[in-house]
Design brief:
CATH superfamily: NADH Oxidase
Order of helices and strands: HHEHHEHEHE
Number of domains: 1
Number of strands: 4
Number of helices: 6
Strand order of the largest sheet: 1-2-4-3
Strand content: 5-15%
CATH class: Alpha Beta
Distance between the termini: 35 Å
């Protein structure tokens, strides 16, 4: 597949086959993710691979509870638009995916979000090239329970930037309509 085909094949997948992704395959995808550029080649990313569905569900419930608490404290917070699904007991923010990869790094690093976003992009493209589906789940980063943090092995000095679900897609949707680029100016 050429690069243009790969870009079309990389879609946000939220429905997966009931099939596990081998740890070996996940590790290959992580190796590709580590080819991403980073500020001053710092390569700050850290990966947590979770292939335990009950634990993924607990992490979903934790994120939902923390987001609801934030909405109740601050009704103007951006998460308010998700309030109805967050209150749905059956809704899993990780869409019952067989695998969750948390891309994290040192919380005090100025370039952390950009560096980890680039690694996540490479991760998602590598997965698509292998016939797997992914979706960056922004709602899944709200984990504060010390027991869960310990269970997943997240160091105190680290922050989760990109929770990415991974699995074999039920289907790959077509590319939705794209806006034309907004070129503000061309300076020659």
């Amino acid at each position: 597949m050429d690069f243009s085909q790969l870009l079309e094949k990389r879609r946000s997948i939220r429905r997966f086959l009931d099939k596990d992704v081998s740890l070996e395959l996940v590790m290959e995808i992580i190796q590709d993710a580590c080819m991403a550029p980073s500020a001053v080649n710092g390569q700050p990313w850290e990966f947590i691979v979770i292939r335990n569905r009950p634990l993924i569900k607990r992490l979903s419930d934790e994120s939902k509870a923390n987001l609801i608490a934030e909405i109740e404290k601050n009704p103007d917070c951006p998460a308010v638009k998700y309030e109805s699904i967050l209150r749905d007991a059956d809704f899993n923010v990780f869409y019952n995916a067989p695998c969750l990869v948390l891309i994290a790094g040192p919380r005090d690093l100025h370039s952390l979000e950009v560096d980890c976003a680039l690694a996540a992009c490479y991760f998602m493209l590598s997965a698509a090239e292998r016939g797997l589906g992914t979706c960056w789940i922004g709602l899944g980063a709200y984990i504060s329970d010390p027991i869960l943090i310990d269970a997943i092995g997240l160091p105190d000095s680290s922050a989760i930037v990109a929770p990415v679900i991974l699995g074999y897609p039920e289907t790959v949707p077509p590319v939705p309509a794209r806006n034309l680029p907004k070129i503000l100016k061309v300076v020659s």
